[in-house]
Amino acid sequence: MAADKGVWKGGKGKGRKTPKGRQIEDQAWEEVRELLGDRPRRADLLIEHLHLIQDTYGCLSAAHLRALAHEMRLSQAEVYEVATFYAHFDVVKEGETPPPALTIRICESLSCELAGAQALKQALQDDLPADRVRVVRAPCMGRCDTAPALHLGHYSVDHATVDKVRAAVEAEKTHAEIPVYEALDAYRAQGGYDALLRCRESGDWEAVQARVAESGLRGLGGAGFPSGRKWGFVRAEPGPRYMAVNGDEGEPGTFKDRWYLERTPHLFLEGMLIAAWAVEASRVFLYMRDEYPAAIRILRDEIAKLVEAGIVEAGYIDLRRGAGAYICGEESAMIESIEGKRGIPRHRPPYVAQKGVFDRPTLVHNVETLIWVARVMREGPEVLSGVEKNGRRGLRNYSVSGRVAQPGVYLLPAGSTIRDVIAAAGGMAEGHAFKAYQPGGPSSGLLPASLDDVPLDFDTLQPHGTFIGSGAVVVLSDRDSARAAALNMLEFFADESCGQCTPCRVGCEKAVKLMQADRWDRDLLEDLSQVMVDASICGLGQAAPNPIRLTMAHFPDEI
After folding, report:
1. Which residues contact residue 497 at a Cβ distance below 8 angstroms, ignoring those fewer than 6 apart?
2. Is the pLDDT of residue 521 over 90?
3. Residues 6+ apart with CB under 8 A from 12
């Protein structure tokens, strides 16, 4: 047989040298196998393995994706659809040019927009060589207190300028800088983990649950569900049970979780382990957003110290890294991502307390909630219940940015008003007069300065058509346009919609186009908003119309 003949014969006498379909390249396969090493090839680790390839080669080539699919015994279609779902994966098809070695992601969310992100992006595109550096827009990075912010690889540039970025590029700074934080020995010297060890030795989980309930602690990821009650729901289900920690703090304007994780990570870790003990969780999945590389590094190092100290067993805390998807802040979408899939929200019921990770009962908490669990167990329920202001009990961490003198995280009584929050942040920035504010991220829309006496807490903002959410407060001044701010919020939702349901996928895009008109069609926008609220599957589409409705209600002269 001639050397160029195929080994299989068809009815027309033609031959094939290979099986049908895309072929595995030996070099790419060897590279993937070397990267994975002795790591398990389980399907739920797909995103982790994609990160390995992206970090090593700067992109995901078609050859590497085929090799990874082959190595993990997954279909190429499944690997491709997961890789293309997440913004931080650069998929390069056959014949396409890979991206430059360096990528700069510039935040375009509201606080950075107010600080000049658009002008900075254009200046960097004009200044930096396009063959070496790629400049792209990005959603909130959780650094709103240092706007405008950007990432050069995984290196954060705060209060970014062209000169700062140029210097970082020339110095090849692409890795996260680790801040000074309270490590395990320092935390234990102050009584850290004593509460956890007492629970394990002689604790009654129902008594601990009652202690948390007495404090009045509610979920601080945005929903506000009473924290202790979740434990009972999960504990009532047959084992094995899991716990999933939602560290995907993606709501623009929110950065409180990062602030604590980069300073006192063990306060969070102890609260997490107490909650996991309470529901007898077989494993804890700790899902952290990829925009927080320093926090991920800190957590990885300190979890290793917990294992070494015998406080947890190796593998009990499974740290997972997100890949740039706001929707994964929704608990069921996060669980899909933990399972190595696209972050598509699930239909409910069943709820995650019944069928969560791998269809097992799962307790889900966010980072700040677990910080308070640790504090309540260490200091008593009165640390929250003993604080009262304007008829509200408790404390709240407010992420404050925008036109204030000193953006940052401020711990204030839960009954604080926007005036109290602005005062804590040093007042308005010089030359700015208070005009409007976003009380809880773009999902909460905009309120006018005239509503400055409303306590920023659960249940107090609903009469005004909004909610406190994650406590992400962005302050606007007389120099800002409420209309432009609302458009910025809807552009964010249009980008971040997972696309599963038509009302959200099409509604957000249509809303952006209507809001770009010289005059808003109020009736059409209201009809569209109502459809999105009524028919969207998850909170993204249901809350996306809030900026539209509140802008029409409070700033009619601008539209």
Report:
1. 327, 504, 505, 508, 540, 541
2. yes
3. none
Burial 292-312 (b: 16+ CB within 10 A, else e): bbbbbbbbeebbeebeeeebb
Confidence bin at 1 (pLDDT 50/70/90)? very low
Check if the beta carbon of residue 476 is closer than 8 Å to that of residue 483.
Answer: no
Q: What is the mean pLDDT of the chain?
A: 95
In this predicted model, which residue has the larger pLDDT, 469 or 405?
405
8 A C-beta contact, residue 417 and residue 456: yes
CB-based burial of residue 411 (10 Å sphere; 0-12 exposed, 13-18 middle, 19+ buried)? exposed
pLDDT digits (tens, 9 = 90+) for 502-514: 999 999 999 999 9
Mean predicted confidence (pLDDT) in 401-423: 98
Amino acid in position 194:
D
- Average pLDDT over every residue of 460-487: 96
Cβ(28)–Cβ(67) under 8 Å? yes
Alpha helices in 9-154 (DSSP H): 26-36, 46-57, 62-72, 76-85, 110-114, 117-127
Instruction: Determine the pLDDT at residue 312.
Output: 98
Burial of 464 (0-12, 13-18, 19+ CB in 10 A): middle
The predicted structure's pLDDT at residue 229: 86
> Which among 365, 396, 384 has a CA at the least distance from the CA of 468?
396
Q: Describe the strand order of the beta sheet including 472-477 as a list of residue ranges.
A: 408-413, 395-402, 472-477, 434-438, 447-448
pLDDT score for 221: 77
pLDDT band at 9; cut points 50, 70, 90: low
Rounded Cα–Cα distance for residues 511 and 5 (Å): 58
Whether 353 contacts 242, CB under 8 Å: no
Q: Give me Rg for the CA atoms of the chain.
A: 25
Task: Give the CA diameter of the chain.
Answer: 91
Cα 559 from chain centre:
31
Residue 390: DSSP 8-state = T
